[in-house]
Amino acid sequence: MTTSPAPTASRRGMLALMGALALSACGFTPVFGPGGQAEGLRGQIFVADPEDRKGFVFVSRMEDRLGLPEAAPYLLDYTISVREDGVGITPERSTTRYNVLGRIDYSLTERATGAKLATGKVENFTGYSATGSIIGEISATEDAYERLMVILADQLVTELIATAPDWRR
Questions:
Q1: What is the pLDDT of residues 59-110, one digit of tens each?
Q2: What is the pTM (predicted TM-score) of this model?
Q3: Rounded distance between C-alpha atoms, residue 87 and residue 96, angstroms
Q4: How far apart are CA 31 and CA 163, in angstroms?
Q5: DSSP-assigned letter for residue 73
Q6: Lower CB count within 10 Å: N or C terminus of the chain?
């Protein structure tokens, strides 16, 4: 039995170069890079301070994606709404699985003038199993809420980037 040799460093470099050339040929430009849709947006949006653990996870993810604000000209206010629905119910009426549904309503304003530039909402869900130990269920619940906040933050960042040419001045 023969195996193919591992790619050499020069072969990997050639493959990377070919991939970069293919992307540049199709008009690809980095979203935050020169000429990109959100050029210069990193560090320009101050996300309102969180009020609880869900908000902390949301704001942390927003700052990871958009950069820490530096004299940010824009302010993002938001309201987080979540609810749980039992979706796995046994014949004994015990709930074994929950969906956690989340929604973030947001408004983006220009800090200097107070002008509202964009408003909207993002929605999504995640779930967790309620079977197992109490500690396991608590951990699964916390993880589901954290995953949901990351998902919603990622959706909101995508929406802000996609609409940046409409609201940026």
A1: 999 999 999 998 899 999 999 999 999 998 888 888 889 999 999 999 999 9
A2: 0.78
A3: 8
A4: 12
A5: S
A6: N
